[in-house]
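Today's session is about reading a structure prediction critically. Students often jump straight to the picture, but the first step is always the sequence itself: look for stretches that repeat, for charged clusters, for runs of hydrophobic residues. Only then move on to the predicted structure, which in these notes is written as discrete structure tokens rather than atom positions. Here is the chain we will use throughout the hour.
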Amino acid sequence: MIVKKTFYPKPDDVSHDWVLVDAKDQNLGRLASQIASLILGKHKPTFTPGVNMGDFVVVVNAEHVVVTGKKLDQKIYFRNTGYPSGLRQITLRDQLATKPERVIEHAVKGMLPHNRLGRRLRKKLKVYAGPEHPHQAQKPKPIDEVLP
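Below is the predicted structure for this chain, in token form.
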């Protein structure tokens, strides 16, 4: 009788690298799907759904992300303060002008699992509006070296 064993990675077997992504002149949706894939760990041969396998991702130049069509004026982000009549809305153009980091964070959030694992994975995303970031000590690799 042949018994086939299933591989399930242990926390000690998983290595979390740091990846640097430059968002300058990148399409928002395509960039977000690549980032979500990196955070989930789908680029690794030992990928296992439901396990925190992914890498930390540092995104720079978030203010220079590109969208197509009329999304700058038609896409609206909603949030609620929790008070009566506390619904706040802001267009993509205004959000990019004030807090461009939230645009990429929101797009990636929609592509991650909506459960406890997704909340833990969101902490692995670091987004910065300009070209500077405080993660030089982790020696992040460019995305070209990580993804084929």
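Discussion point for the tutorial: The CA atoms of residues 3 and 28 lie 46 Å apart.
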